[in-house]
Amino acid sequence: MLEKINQSVAFIREKTNFNPEVGIILGTGLGGLVREINIEHSLNYQDIPNFPVSTVEGHQGRLILGTLAGKKVIAMQGRFHYYEGYTMQEVTFPVRVMKFLGIKQLIVSNASGGVNPNFEIGDIMIITDHINLMPNPLIGKNYDELGPRFPDMSDAYDKNLVEKAENIAHKLGVKVQKGTYVGVTGPTLETP
User: Fold this and answer.
1) Closest CA to 74 of 110, 112, 33
2) Is residue 159 included in any domain, yes or no?
3) Global pTM?
4) Residue 73 lies in a domain
5) What is the pLDDT of residue 59?
6) How many other C-beta atoms are found inside a 10 Å radius of the C-beta of residue 50?
7) Are residues 101 and 128 both part of a single domain?
8) Each residue of 20-67: pLDDT tens digit?
9) Phi, then psi, of 129 in degrees rounded to 5
């Protein structure tokens, strides 16, 4: 796996000479954020060695590198899902590549259903915890370069970033919810 990660990283560095600070994974319906990025480079997933290719409609399949609000970002416009037939190692591969490219923070977005009766369709929810009901991507050989076998999950969601997001939403008059995300394999939608 490390060899494949290093091949992808070498290709991206050769093509872009870009050092991102923040990684962003854009979920269904949220790929439009790239219009806000001052794009310096755009790479199709199919051109990057070892990168999976999204098969879901609406997922563009491009790696966008540029600046957003003064930060150097690398954004995935489209992603890969376990339910497409990829292994969890393949699904998480781009995150590992972004880590090796130097990101310090990762922002993940998606569109999903909710079971909280106080939520409304279209609400923005800030994830404060999660329950993973999918296969664990850490199963298998552990690579110290990727992190410990048992990563500390006591502070998985940056409380400072959560507070900043809440403050910005409040200033802009945007309603936000907070909650626990339940990761399921899909491609199912929640029942009422």
Assistant:
1) 33
2) yes
3) 0.90
4) yes
5) 55
6) 16
7) no
8) 999 999 987 777 899 999 999 999 999 999 998 877 665 578 999 999
9) -165, 170
The C-alpha atoms of residue 163 and residue 175 are separated, in whole angstroms, by 14
Q: Are residues 85 and 9 part of one domain?
A: yes
164 Cβ neighbours under 8 A, 6+ residues apart: none
Rounded to whole angstroms, the Cα distance separating 73 from 20 reads: 5
Hey, what are 162's tokens? 């959560």
At 192 the pLDDT is 67
> For each successive 10 residues of the chain (192 residues), what is the average pLDDT?
96 97 88 91 95 73 95 92 91 96 93 88 92 92 91 91 94 95 84 68
The stretches of 33-155 forming alpha helices (DSSP H) are 88-101
Give the SS3 label for residue 169. Answer: helix
Q: Given 110, 128, 144, which residue is the final one in a domain?
A: 110
Range of the domain at 18: 1-110
Q: Report if residue 14 sits inside a domain.
A: yes
Task: For residues 92 and 119, give the distance between their C-alpha atoms in angstroms, rounded to a whole number.
Answer: 29
CA 108 to the chain's CA centroid: 4
Considering the domain architecture, whether residues 79 and 100 belong to the same structural domain is answered as yes
Query: 13: domain CATH number?
Result: 3.40.50.1580
